[in-house]
Each structure stands twice: as C-alpha cells, then as structure tokens.
C-alpha cells in the first residue's frame, strides 16, 4: 500500500493496508472478484509457468491457439469507453472544483445549484465521443491500455453483393493490423 497510495485516487488519507486491499481487489486478477485465496493460487501457478519457461522445461504458449482468442463485443467496448470518459470527466470536475475553492473562498460545496452552474461551463460531450468511436473506429483514450489496438474498431460493411454483405456479420474481425496484412 505504501507504493500505491499516491497513485490511487481517493486513498490519500487511508493506511497502507486499506490501499493494498483496494489494489488487490480492483486491479489484480479482477476476474476472480474478491477471492484472495484464488488470486494467490493463480499468481503461484503463473510464477510456476514462468519458471518452467525460463528453465526450458516447457514450450511457450501459442498465441494463435483457440484458448487465447478473445472476442471484444461492441457492447463491452462501448461500456469500457463510456466508463473511461466518465472517469476523465469526474477527475477534471474534481480538479476544477478544487481550483475554484482555492481561488474563490465564498464557493459553497453544499449549494448544488452553484456547483451545477459552475460545471455547466466545463461540460464535455460523452455521447459525441461514443458516436465518433462508432463512426470512425478510433478510441482516443489514455487509460484503455489493455486493448491491443486503438484504431480500426469498426468495419464498413461493403454491399457489393448480398453474400459479401452478410459475411461481415458472421465473422470476427481480428484487428486493423491483420486487415492490413496480405497473408490473412
């Protein structure tokens, strides 16, 4: 917790143990929810695989194997993008309100009308960002680092003939890097 407290938003005044629990819960093996025993076992298993790979007692995993393929559905992408945009807006709003409080001592946090009036000056259109994502297929985000690419998220369905058009809805797009290759 000592090393992550400065990076974790909202944990500046908490003790190290609380920060460490939040890091483990929210950022390490999040698919295992709150089961710390299962997270520990998976980390040990991953270390065993790493040591076996370094010792050359096992071969590296094939990234083209079916077990490593993952389909990013449109709803999941839009949800992640929406969450990212709302978090950016909340952080910006917090920063602007803190600056306003330091500049203007008469600013009241309890007055919701004053806060709404202040924040209405600095609105960002989350809907327009999602619309651009759908139209252009480019995710302009700094925190979506877990995606393998940031562009080429959409495909224009070509309507040369009916079979070509319908094939766009039956296939899985492997990404813009694969679309540019001549071998696939």
Automatic annotation (TrEMBL):
<dbReference type="GO" id="GO:0032549">
    <property type="term" value="F:ribonucleoside binding"/>
</dbReference>
<dbReference type="GO" id="GO:0000428">
    <property type="term" value="C:DNA-directed RNA polymerase complex"/>
</dbReference>
<keyword id="KW-0240">DNA-directed RNA polymerase</keyword>
<feature type="domain" description="RNA polymerase Rpb2">
    <location>
        <begin position="157"/>
        <end position="184"/>
    </location>
</feature>
<dbReference type="GO" id="GO:0003899">
    <property type="term" value="F:DNA-directed RNA polymerase activity"/>
</dbReference>
<dbReference type="InterPro" id="IPR037034">
    <property type="entry name" value="RNA_pol_Rpb2_2_sf"/>
</dbReference>
<keyword id="KW-0804">Transcription</keyword>
<dbReference type="GO" id="GO:0006351">
    <property type="term" value="P:DNA-templated transcription"/>
</dbReference>
<dbReference type="InterPro" id="IPR015712">
    <property type="entry name" value="DNA-dir_RNA_pol_su2"/>
</dbReference>
<keyword id="KW-0548">Nucleotidyltransferase</keyword>
<protein>
    <recommendedName>
        <fullName>DNA-directed RNA polymerase</fullName>
        <ecNumber>2.7.7.6</ecNumber>
    </recommendedName>
</protein>
<dbReference type="Pfam" id="PF04565">
    <property type="entry name" value="RNA_pol_Rpb2_3"/>
</dbReference>
<keyword id="KW-0808">Transferase</keyword>
<comment type="similarity">
    <text>Belongs to the RNA polymerase beta chain family.</text>
</comment>
<dbReference type="GO" id="GO:0003677">
    <property type="term" value="F:DNA binding"/>
</dbReference>
<dbReference type="InterPro" id="IPR007645">
    <property type="entry name" value="RNA_pol_Rpb2_3"/>
</dbReference>
